[in-house]
Design goal:
Blueprint: E1 3-8, H1 12-23, E2 28-31, E3 43-46, E4 49-52, E5 59-61, H2 64-70, E6 84-87, E7 90-93, H3 98-105, H4 110-120, H5 132-140, H6 142-157, H7 167-170, E8 187-189, H8 195-202, E9 207-209, H9 218-224, E10 225-230, H10 234-237, E11 247-257, E12 267-270, E13 279-282, E14 294-303, E15 312-313, H11 317-331, E16 336-338, H12 340-343, H13 350-365
Parallel strand pairs: 1-2, 1-10, 2-9, 6-12, 10-16
Antiparallel strand pairs: 3-4, 5-8, 6-7, 11-14, 11-15, 12-13, 13-14
Helix pairs in contact: 1-13, 5-6
Bound molecules: flavin-adenine dinucleotide and uridine-5'-diphosphate.
Flavin-adenine dinucleotide binds at residues 8-14, 31-34, 39-41, 55-59, 213-215, 231-232, 250, 311-312, 340-342, 348-351, 353.
Amino acid sequence: MKIPHLIVGSGLFGSVVAQRLKANNKGVLVIEKRNHLAGNVFTEEIDGIQVHKYGAHIFHTNNSTVWEYLNQFASFNNFRNAPMANYKGRLFNLPFNMNTFYSLWGLSKPEEVKRKIEEQRKEFQGRVPKNLEEQAICLVGRDLYELLIKGYTEKQWGRPCSSLPPFIIKRLPVRLNFDNNYFNARFQGIPLEGYTSMVKNLLSSIDTWTNKDFLKEKDYFRSISEKIIYTGPIDEYFDFCYGPLEYRSLKFETTRIETPNYQGVAVMNFTDRETAYTRIIEHKHFSSVETDFTLISKEYPSRWEKGEEPYYPVNDEKNNLLYQKYLNLAQSEKSVYFGGRLGLYKYLDMDQTVEKALNLASSLLS
Ligand code: FAD
Ligand code: UDP
């Protein structure tokens, strides 16, 4: 008898689809090429501290269906992200808000800040920003662009802001109030027991095989399954037949430091061009653990090449067109469903990932 649903990848997308199918008495097998479950939300407990191994993950959503769904599998704390930006030792609050503008310009009134930004964006008046640099200056003015955006963004994406698409910066909130809460979302937090525990709960009654790369035995897995839900990279599935899609990769360097509190905040961004890393994450601040040491991770952006971890899709025009070609192939691939951030080649926050997974599961069940 064939496996009714083979799920390739145990990240949030695959795990949610698997849970929904199993809860509706459908046969499911999850395979995962890494040696652990949970994909990029994987957390590992080290000496009592939950370490976010693939970068800081802060859950936030306005979608009550997604929030209530996940709360069946984890209790969330009430962590609020209020990161700091460090420019050559000068500290600023993020996201851009009145605290940031006050530190930079000494202005304490929203109207004064509005006028200052208007003044600085004059050079682009009357036309639509055509790249990230122009978009950023229109949003927050040139001073803030030079200090907090230019260096960070060029490290993060490995190219000049003038050749990056404007939409990247649109994710960054700008506020004329004193609110440091990064995510403007109704529901926020981090699973008290870590994300790995949440994913294990999602998959609790489901067969899972780790260290199993679907693409190494594609013909075999296709022959034993009725339907496949594939959450790996779409271009890799088709053996890169049109060439590889581009990504940015990251490297994490985690260190133990013998002090109870290293930087006083979970996330500190380093916005100058010279510091090679973009952020330092101090993991204990995600859940206020009391220890006399701490664990920090420096996050270094890096070039992506085949074999490296693909983190951020580069959704510029060239890559979006290439993705369309793979999408056309995917649509004619019988009984295979592509999902998740790699299958859809799209940066998805966790809540969007879960929402899309719930939708796919519903359509498979209908
Ligand atoms: P993944 O977690 O990547 O899962 C895919 C899985 O498939 C992986 O485990 C992979 O090993 C496996 N796989 C791939 N190919 C194969 C194969 N051939 N055979 C078997 N298995 C395979 N979102 C937020 O909401 N808040 C945040 O704070 C946040 N922070 C982030 C920080 C970083 C640095 C990054 C890159 C993303 C962040 N996100 C955040 C987004 C979040 O990571 C994603 O929404 C989510 O992890 C996507 O889940 P997924 O299942 O699609 O992908
Ligand atoms: N960004 C920036 N300075 C900062 C933080 C972010 O210029 O201190 C820009 C950068 O271009 C980045 C984008 O805003 O790619 C989105 O950043 P965010 O931290 O919101 O997203 P993440 O990288 O965590 O997915």
